[in-house]
Design goal:
With 75 residues, chain A is α+β, with helices and mostly antiparallel strands. Chain A is built from two helices and six strands; from the N terminus they run ββαβββαβ. In chain B, helix 3 packs across helix 10, helix 17 packs antiparallel against helix 24 and helix 30 crosses helix 31. The chains are: A alpha+beta (75), B alpha/beta (690).
Amino acid sequence: MIPLTEAKLNQRLKIVKIEGECGSLERRLMELGLAIGSEVVVKDKSYGPIILEVHGSKIAIGRGMALKIFVEVLE
Amino acid sequence: MKKEFVIALASQPNIGKTTLFNTLTKSRGYVANWPGKTVEVMQASFEFQEKRIKLIDLPGIRSLNALSEEEKLTKEFILSKNYDSLILLADAEALEKTLYFVVQVLEITNKAVVAINKYDEAHSLGLHINKEGIEEKLNCRVVEISALHKINLNQLVLEAINASSKNGEEAIRINYGSLEKEIEKISKILKGYGVEKPRIASIKLFEGDDSFIKSLSNEKQKRIKKEVERIKREFKKESGRSCEEKIISERYRFIEEVLKKNVTYVKVAKKEISEAIDKKIFSNFYFGFLFSLIVLFSTIFISFSINTGFPLNIIFRTFGNEKLAKEVEELSISSLLSRFFDWFSQATNSFLISINASEELRSLIIDGLIAGFSSVAVFFPLIFIVNFFMGIVEDSGIMSRSAVVFHRITSKFNLSGRVVFPSTMSLACNVPGIMSTRILESDKERLASSVAIPFIICQARLVVLLFLTSIFFSSILLQAGIITLAYALSFFAFVLAYIFVSRIILKQKEKVELIEELPNYHFPSLRVVFWISWERSKSFLTKIALVIIPASIIIWFILHFGINGYTNSIDQSFGKIIGEFIAAIFPFKLQWQFGLSLLTGFIAKELVLETLAISFNTGNLAELSSKIAISKAEALAFIVFSMLYTPCVASLAAISSEKSKKAAFLSLAISFFFAYFFSLAVYFLFSFLA
């Protein structure tokens, strides 16, 4: 289990844990598909934000948020 | 009378809902004013196979919570029985994500049909859908459509009419796994209380949404909520997961289940173009930043140039093409409008003379009424052009990428990257700037930025700024320096006011976090963007007109009446008294003409010039300069004050209709306070230096 910030690019990942309270921001993330059990791929993290692909669409999130999302590597 | 079918369109934002609405109604929709709502709703009626249909375009929302104004409105509407059926739109290119909203609605009602938009494009890129399979799982009809290419739209409307005969029960029932037992338990209690749709009411309670049990007595509500809270805490302790997260995850599992057997993706090529652009430009901060700046400044440049010819005229002039520069100025919309109103005033005047109208009446009609209309009319091109370009930038997918880039800088002031757009657009005109705060994510951000935006120097104020610096100061270098400082001060005041409102008034403590969806790039539908900007500007203009026209008649009265009744000379009018009064609030010397110009500038900032010219009784710059009897420090203080002191009436109307009257008042109070404070600071600083 690693935080999203440490994941390699273009690897299939599965979200296993989301830390912290379920506030409105976390809620928004989940509704965009970043919920436990969802598959994600990190597309880019060359500067500040982390660009993810989840459920076929792209999302940019800040590093602070990404640190709270834990994933497992699939395959 | 024939029965009118009320059909509402609902979906997540930016997936072609407005395009669909526009196509179905053949661009005959208009902004409907729903009482007590600040969110715009488009509406239209049309005939379809001898049936009368009223189509409502509900605001696009991600989820059925009640966090933002849009969400509240859409949710309330879906829970109400004010419709016959719903068309729920999903996007073939992002099915999982867009079905999340659809599924939430289907958990409530089966009076709905699901439309999968952009089907043709997705299909040609390798997407295959087993429609019957999805219909079976979702327990409702599915139509594959293209709103843009008008595919299967008749069938969609037919299915929507058919869906109206369903009973309104829940279409689907999602299994929430380990939470099922608790959901059922609460659901039983709610059923005993006589709550409609007890199961979904119970699920929503676990999601922290109590809008389904509002009909119950306070005591019952409290008791139930307490029980739900207890279960939520226990669930968290046992499983380590929150109920909200569990429910959202299970919904996504359900969607995966629906799609797994019924959708096959072959490699989608279009995304690779999107990916290539992202990789080439937006994966590097500096490239992304530069690109975003170019987009922003071209937008501003084009809006400015179309409106007044500036700064395109200067560019032509620099390259020695005087003729083109003149043409650009003459053909600019503001020049065309002012020529039209000049002609119209003259024609009206000769007509009024021919019917022997009194001088007072002529003045009222020409200087009051027609002048008022012309103040309103000048707003239209600006509002429309800015809305149009913002629509294009947003629709194309560029805006969200630029917001990510800007976020890196704006987050240092605890502002989200998106704030850059409304604030930059405000350089052209604050009104469309305030209108476009709706692109911001949270209501708090929208409120804080609408209140702060009037500090940004708009084009009308730029004209005043150029004029004032040139009558007060002769050195071009000094003029340029003052103009630059004025802009710097205005941005500083903007950020300060924003922080003040969000931190102190709204008590926003959390840091802004970046969460930005990045839709695929696509070429925006100009027809739809044009139409929606046109309709929005039109509906807005009527709102502004209702404020500006009465205000300009009041100003007319002040300038044309005095103690001895009607007067032709401003010296004899109440205007002079009021001007002296306004000038007296400053602890330094200010001529009454300046005080009066601040009053008329409240109606429209450019009127400051006109008032100064009339009250000093000269339009000639040199002559005007010679009549000025205030010191340089006083002049500087006046410039600062006139740039910051109050939003114009139109901006106040915009804030009040977008947010609330309170917000408009807040903006007025803050700007007056800042203006007074900064102008005094400048005055004392420069008196001291001199």
